[in-house]
Amino acid sequence: MSGKKVTSLIFILGILLGMFIIPSILSFFGIPTFGYLLASVFGKGNPLVLTILLLTICLVIFSVYKRTRM
Fold first, then answer.
1. Lower CB density within 10 Å: C or N end of the chain?
2. For the whole prediction, is pTM greater than 0.85?
3. Do residues 11 and 62 lie in contact, with contact meaning Cβ atoms separated by under 8 Å?
4. Which phi and psi angles does 34 have, rounded to 5°?
5. What sign has the CA pseudo-torsion 46, 48, 52, 55?
């Protein structure tokens, strides 16, 4: 595998871990997740939507950064 494919795979795996697995583990132990923090900061809203919005923004910034670095 080339370096780009490995980096892309790790990036996608990190997004999946951050969206699905880590919040479940945190809520199991009673630790507030990032979604609840966003809901408390931005008022009553859907934490899942806010989290996906922030992850999408991070993904766009990362993509732009990778393109400008080439």
1. C
2. no
3. yes
4. -65, -35
5. positive
